[in-house]
Write a structure and sequence with these properties.
267 residues; alpha+beta; OB fold (Dihydrolipoamide Acetyltransferase, E2P); two-stranded antiparallel sheet; 9 strands; globular; disordered N terminus
Length: 267
């Protein structure tokens, strides 16, 4: 997405192959993002806090070419059907941002993801949901991609432990209170137990994968983030799980104010 402080002049999100998935121009492309997509996810046994063993299902990962194809169709759909809506949604997303912040590429990337995966209309539908209802004929691999993307959620993931052997991250979703296992080789190297990442994630089997940009909150600020999210839930009148679906933009800005850094997810 272009670096422009006037939202109405920006192209709709995902209009280019690299930018539409929230990637910055740091050399990571879709191939790098899904480099392990042809491999089978190994069935990994993980240990929970109470000492019990929990297995992660072995599921074939998404085909990278099918991912690119669905990604392109989704970007075209968003541009063709909802391009005129984008400036209005952008004004709401950037409502609390400074003029300088509106120009930051990383925040424009965050908005691109929000526009497709987080913004909901009066009936609670996302642009992604409307795309799925559009009735395009998809082949089997494309259907797998779309099914995974339809389960995309905005997640506040607290890391408990790392598995160096398979690069899996064991932790929990702070808002929904459920255990999660995430897989992302780029994110893996930047985290230590106690850190939190805030990102849109989609599941392939039992493994959750960040979609595009991740916001990292260091463990030293994790409690501050938790208090901020609790206060936000009270102010908005939602339970924490509802907050993730109904107010993802506010969660993002709450995390951003205490974040250590933002970076692109890579497989």
């Amino acid at each position: 997405m272009a670096d422009d402080s006037k939202p109405s002049k920006r192209r709709p999100p995902r209009a280019s192959r690299r930018k539409r998935r929230g990637h910055s121009s740091d050399g990571h492309d879709d191939a790098a993002t899904l480099a392990a997509a042809h491999a089978l996810a190994s069935e990994a046994a993980t240990t929970t806090k109470d000492g019990k063993r929990r297995k992660v299902k072995s599921v074939r990962q998404l085909d990278p070419e099918a991912f690119r194809q669905v990604d392109g169709m989704l970007g075209s759909f968003a541009q063709r059907r909802f391009g005129k809506l984008m400036p209005k949604v952008a004004e709401g997303f950037f409502g609390a941002a400074s003029e300088d912040e509106r120009k930051l590429p990383v925040l424009q990337q965050a908005f691109a993801l929000y526009f497709v995966y987080g913004y909901r209309d009066g009936q609670g539908l996302r642009i992604l949901d409307m795309f799925a209802r559009f009735g395009l004929k998809l082949d089997r691999e494309q259907q797998r991609v779309l099914a995974a993307l339809q389960r995309t959620s905005f997640v506040v993931f607290a890391l408990d432990r790392k598995n160096d052997a398979n690069k899996q991250l064991q932790g929990r979703d702070l808002l929904r209170g459920v255990p999660m296992t995430a897989l992302d080789r780029g994110v893996f190297d930047h985290l230590v137990p106690g850190d939190v990442i805030v990102a849109y994630m989609f599941p392939v089997g039992d493994l959750w994968r960040p979609l595009g940009m991740c916001t990292k909150v260091a463990r030293a600020k994790a409690n501050t983030l938790g208090k901020g999210l609790s206060q936000l839930a009270q102010q908005q009148g939602f339970s924490p799980p509802q907050l993730a679906d109904r107010r993802p933009a506010q969660i993002f800005w709450t995390a951003l104010r205490v974040a250590e850094r933002n970076f692109s997810a890579t497989a």
